[in-house]
Each structure stands twice: as structure tokens, then as C-alpha cells.
Write a structure and sequence with these properties.
Blueprint lengths: L1 E2 L2 E2 H13 L12 E3 L8 E7 L2 E7 L13 H23 L4 E12 L13 E12 L3 H14 L1 H7 L13
Antiparallel strand pairs: 1-2, 3-4, 4-5, 6-7
Length: about 170
């Protein structure tokens, strides 16, 4: 049964699977890509698996004079936050049998490149703002409850709100 373009059967089945064996809830997400050196082309490419094959993602180096030929890394990061937050919000609403007719999500980040160019110590990102506009058969109280649910359970929002352990390694290729 689909509601709000969410496959509820799959959601319920996966929840039951991990209820029976919580170890199945944990896995490693991974992306690998290559820096590209051809002038006038995107600088980074990654191919990821999707249901029916692969999908190629390309990014341009941030172009400080205006947009590049592909989205820059920040656009992909903001897209992750917006898509993850909206998906968590809509999935839980669908589990609660709440129907939407439209949803628009906007994520903004206040950036400061001063530190990146060794011109000061200002934080690279000062603030994120999330605004979601929703229409459908839902009350404001239900919306606010779903907002709090998604803020707590979306992995993107969790990453913004919590310091996550980072392990970084750089190696010479053989």
C-alpha cells in the first residue's frame, strides 16, 4: 500500500525485520569517487548503485565567481539534508496514515570562507535553517509533532546536531 509515494509495506516489513534482529539495522553507507583532470569538465564523479543499475553523480569545484557546470559539494550536502529530513517526515506521516498534497522543503546554510582561505578563524558554517511548507489533511499540532520526530530521527539532521566521530586517512597510490 502506497501513501504519499512511500511503500508502506516495505517500511513495515523492514521495521519488523530489525525488531526481530536489531543487528540488521546497522550497516556501512559508502560512496567512492574520482577527481577528474579534464579542463572544462566536472571535477568529481561517483557512480552509485540504484534499483535498476547505476547513477552517476558529478560535482564541480566551488566556483566563487558563480555556478559551475555541475552542482558543487555544498549543493549535494544540502540536498542530502533536505531529502533525508523530508523523507523521514513523510515516511512517519504515512505510517500515521496522514495524506499530503504538496511538500516543499528549503534548507539554507550561512557559510563563511574566511578560515578556508586562511584569512581568519570564523566558523565555516554558522547556521542551518530548515523550512518546510506542507498542504494536506493534517493539523498544525500533527505537523509540529512530525517536525520533532524528523529532527530526532533523520540521519542528516542528526549529523548537523551532533558531533560525529571522524576518521580520515590519506595514502599514496601504488
Amino acid at each position: 500500500m502506497d501513501l504519499n509515494n512511500i511503500d508502506l509495506k516495505q517500511v513495515v516489513e523492514f521495521k519488523e525485520t530489525i525488531r526481530k534482529d536489531p543487528r540488521l539495522a546497522a550497516f556501512t553507507a559508502r560512496i567512492e569517487g574520482d577527481w577528474l583532470f579534464e579542463e572544462g569538465e566536472p571535477q568529481f564523479r561517483s557512480t552509485v548503485k540504484v534499483k535498476e543499475g547505476t547513477y552517476t553523480m558529478e560535482a564541480s569545484h566551488p566556483n566563487f565567481a558563480g555556478p559551475g557546470i555541475r552542482p558543487g559539494p555544498m549543493a549535494f550536502g544540502l540536498f542530502w539534508f533536505a531529502a533525508c529530513y523530508t523523507s523521514t517526515f513523510v515516511t512517519e506521516a504515512s505510517v500515521r496514515k496522514l495524506r499530503f498534497t504538496a511538500i516543499k522543503t528549503k534548507i539554507e546554510a550561512e557559510l563563511d570562507y574566511t578560515a578556508q582561505f586562511d584569512l581568519g578563524e570564523n566558523p565555516l558554517i554558522n547556521e542551518y535553517r530548515v523550512v518546510m511548507e506542507v498542504s494536506g489533511d493534517i493539523t498544525d499540532a500533527q505537523l509540529q509533532d512530525l517536525k520533532e520526530y524528523a529532527l530526532k530521527r533523520c540521519m542528516g539532521m542528526f549529523t548537523i546536531r551532533n558531533a560525529i566521530r571522524l576518521k580520515a586517512d590519506v595514502r599514496l597510490m601504488s
